[in-house]
Amino acid sequence: MIILRKELKGSILDIGGGGEAFIGRTYGEQVVAIDHSQEELDEAPSGFKKILMDATDLKYENGHFDNVTFFYTLMYMTASEQAKAISEAARVLKKGGSLAIWDCEITSAYPDPFLVDVDVLIDEHKYHTTYGIVKKDTQDRAQIEQLCSKVGLHLVKASSNAEHFNLYCEKI
Length: 172
Description:
7-stranded mixed beta sheet; alpha/beta; 4 helices
């Protein structure tokens, strides 16, 4: 169970923030959610700003946001897209700002799809969803940590279990 509490202060860029929009549900008007799919943005509830945008080419100035989040978004990207998206996230993050990532370990997603169940608690509301993908790239926490470190993000806190991981990094 992922418990989302309103702990982040300041502005938040939620990359891949359409669909269930768990970050937007939690933080409301603090959030600018971007997604590459208008359909995903249309499905998301109201209460925060939603913009159609590519995570590998963010249309924001350097140091624009206090926080950047990826909630089960990196799994939908190729390894090269992940590197670009994390680099862009670091670029638009203010010095001292935080990057938070929730995602999963993927050892095989081809030819059979990879599916992961995610349970989220926001206030007293419980949500359940299943994310799935077919792709040839694998993904693990160590790879994502390495991408963050490569762009100057310092790992502050990390947790994981068999399928899921959560990383908090700071831009120093």
